[in-house]
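Input record (one chain):
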Amino acid sequence: MSGTSLDGIDVAIVEIRGRGIETVGFQTTAYPDRLRARLLKPADSREISRLNFELGELYAKAVLRAVRSYGPVELIGCHGQTIYHEGGASTLQIGEAAVIAERTGVPVISDFRTRDIAAGGQGAPLVPFVDCLLFRHPRRTRIALNIGGIANITVIPSGIAFDTGPGNMVIDALAREYTGGRQNFDRGGRIAARGNLNRPLLDRLLADPYYRAKPPKSAGREQYGAEFVTRLKQTRLPLPDLIATATVLTAAAIARAAAPFQPDELIVSGGGAHNP
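The corresponding structure, as predicted from the sequence alone:
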């Protein structure tokens, strides 16, 4: 798995027996800075084609590294790296599955997002399924919240799932700008803590129709990527204030999305779970 935050490649080795699921091991392989920059803005179709095969090689190396630590696998599922996503209409992931299969000698399942959109979905079929499988409770309504580059929730047991808006993506971009590229994220929320919330800006951001739209809906770098960050910087507010406001935007959008379901419990995961 590699998400919209472009942090790198996560490999989980999992043993499945009937309904029993056990995590055997987990590793992360970071993306080199130069590769991350290329993924953020592929120049043309030739660059996309090259990246597709380069990522296939990287994914295969990440899997083989995990296999050396935790033992052999019988099947690989690879989501691929999303480089464009338009929920319910089109989506594009790269990281050639054929390369992974050739290098590892293991069958590979891929194209999860494209198949879901072809079937009429928003292009995120796996998370709601596994959230409901793992976290269903006979009496309590639970929400599983993942704060990655984009934040998303699954309401359990109904299985309603959608993106709430930005997760870490906007904060990460502003943190890179503030630190001159020395930090790829706001570790511990320390930069935001030094800034001040700009309430008028937050109110303008929360007026976006996306937050009022009913699910199904999904978001991505197209909404909250470079153009969004450029608009924030054009306010000429100090960067710590923008980072503080972006952090509150993430939390406020999550709260707005979750509140109507009146959950008894919130189960939080993803990189943003470490931001106090």
